[in-house]
Structure of MarR family winged helix-turn-helix transcriptional regulator:
Amino acid sequence: MNSTQDQPAGERESATRALERELSVLIGRARSISLSLAARVHPELDAACYAMLLHLGDIGPVRAADVVERTGLDKSTISRQIARLEELELVERVADPHDGRARLVQLTDGGTERLATVRNDRRARLHAILDRWPTDEITTFSDLLGKLNQDL
């Protein structure tokens, strides 16, 4: 039963609406959690800049232009977010060792430490929730989220 023709139209519509409803709840909760985590990193950090900080933490020292390319966000958005993270002393610009004319953006020591603390707490919370789930359900959920993210 892979094809949409294998499912009655009403059943498929009902399943799609249930998924849409659950995704809406998940997105709302994710926003709320992101705001809370951002405030734990720095009281003046907003959710969008928190997302940028996470991204920078994952990719390491990088040119701002590469962040634009990787995220698909507008150059001015990236510039504003990086400038804000610099103001909060969570990131810094350093000389590119391969090109003295270029600058790289990287987390400061303080930014790295604060982000690691919040990530560890977030990971522990997720593990506590998922400890109640069988491994095969975690794997299936992860695979399906990956498929949805790829299709989006």
The first helix runs from residue 9 to 41.
